Input
Amino acid sequence: MDLLTVTEKAAGRIRELLEKQGTPEGGLRVKITSGGCAGFQYRMDLVEAAGEKDFVVEAHGARVVLDARSAIYLAGSEIDFVSGGLMGARFEVRNPNAAASCSCGDSFDLKRQPAG
Output
């Protein structure tokens, strides 16, 4: 199983945002934090570079950066970029490890807690 997949549409949007920011060699950091109405939430930020201990997924000319803890929660997930609907344009995570999510899709609960 791949650590994470990134759709062409998401990769294109990541590249576009990094170009606008003036950091085309950077990436999109996806991090899992505690909180939200379902227990965990996704946090996404543009970063200039990955840290020494980060995992980097490269797809379609874009980079997604994950810390070790988030990589465990995101294993097997897909990141897409969707537009329209009530939430507008946004990155969307399709996470097979999520047991339930809130209606906005930004927070979730896990099927299982990773060991460690």
About this structure: The mean pLDDT is 85.
